[in-house]
Design goal:
The protein is an alpha/beta fold and 358 residues long. It has 13 helices and 13 strands. 34% of the residues lie in helices and 18% in strands. It is elongated, with a radius of gyration of 20 Å. It holds the Pfam family PBP_like_2.
């Protein structure tokens, strides 16, 4: 199925809603009207979730007449912008800790579930499937493994005719929640990365190639023969890129798919402060090892309550009527019981008198 994203290429800002004609009919699943809100609602952050927010925003605009403008600037910049109150909501794949949320007066909750994949470009083998584990990926990203025909890679890919070629390592150049998910997985499966730890901005190996946003990483991998990178799965599909299978915690080789992302999320503990569940290296024979979500950040007492209410209505619409778009892009809608927990968190978002906005 052809994927249609309202996104820029390497530019940071992304307009994620078309100014379409307003549909005043309230058909089943339609978003409520928003006469009291500004013409545009602004958000910024995670590029991991940008394809889905784009689909949701376009459809929400059609049925409710509210335009959602979302800047795909990376999780670090999204956190910065919501803390500076320049946007109505932020989004980050690396959740804030409870004390950080409390200090900033923010409420945090998940949006939808997706997966990070290792993508590669080796012209000699084309899109021939490759397999990696956390040890090998981690060693590539520390520079211990330098060649595509390294014995550790060959051992996992005996059928592939891997070339005697230097590996060009591509990574994010910006503060990135996708990097956080990727390095969180590596920190659980590779001793060197266990010491380095998960980070939105890790200390990358010398000679690696930086790209801004998931789009930037994808573009660099497509450009350089012999390269490897990591992106959210929707970007790999959009660009027709080869995405490796991974060996998961149960020792099973799994391919990226809605099914394997869902398996990773099945036993997640969302009843932790800030709903900050970790989905990486999850147990389960079918579980994808680098799954995650983009966490939405909003103020508990927003200055613009009309805009904040529309953000909640937008997400409420996405959790219900937007499930088809999520499935189309290989994201997993939140399970009903998790949505119930999310809506309990929404009760913390109130007007000046303490009345919940929704």
């Amino acid at each position: 199925m052809r994927l249609k994203f309202l996104m820029t290429g390497l530019a940071a800002a992304v307009l994620l809603a078309a100014c379409g004609a307003k549909d005043e009919k309230k058909a089943d699943g339609a978003a409520p009207a928003a006469a009291e809100a500004k013409a545009g609602i602004n958000g910024a952050g995670s590029s991991f979730i940008a394809p889905l927010f784009g689909k949701w925003a376009a459809e929400f605009n059609k049925v409710g007449g509210v335009q959602i403008n979302y800047q795909s600037v990376g999780s670090g910049a999204g956190i910065d912008q919501i803390k500076k109150k320049t946007v109505d909501f932020g989004a980050t794949d690396a959740p804030l800790k409870a004390d950080d949320l409390a200090a900033a007066g923010l409420v945090q909750f998940p949006s939808a579930i997706g997966g990070v994949v290792a993508v590669y470009n080796i012209k000699d083998i084309g899109n021939q499937p490759l397999v990696f584990n956390g040890q090998v990926l981690g060693d590539i990203y520390t520079g211990k493994i330098k060649k595509w025909n390294d014995p550790a890679i060959v051992a996992l890919n005996k059928a592939a005719k891997l070339p005697d070629m230097d590996i060009k390592v591509v990574r994010r150049a910006d503060g990135s929640g996708t990097s956080y998910l990727f390095t969180e997985f590596l920190s659980k499966t590779n001793a060197d990365w266990e010491k380095l730890g998960a980070s939105k901005e890790p200390k990358w190996m010398d000679g690696s190639i930086g790209g801004k946003g998931n789009d930037g990483v994808a573009a660099n991998v497509k450009q350089f023969d012999g390269s490897i990178g990591y992106v959210e799965y929707a970007y790999a599909k959009k660009n027709g890129m080869a995405a490796a299978s991974l060996i998961n915690k149960d020792g099973k080789t799994v391919a990226p798919s809605a099914e394997t992302f869902a398996s990773a999320a099945a036993k997640a503990d969302w009843k932790v402060p800030g709903m900050a569940a970790s989905l990486t290296n999850a147990a389960g024979e079918k579980s994808w090892p680098i799954a995650g979500t983009a966490f939405v950040l909003m103020y508990a007492k927003p200055e613009n309550t009309a805009n904040a209410t529309q953000v909640l209505k937008f997400l409420d619409w996405g959790y219900t009527a937007g499930q088809a778009q999520a499935n189309e892009l290989e994201y997993i809608p939140l399970p009903a019981d998790v949505v119930t927990l999310v809506k309990a968190e929404w009760k913390k978002i109130t007007d000046a008198s303490g009345k919940p906005l929704m």
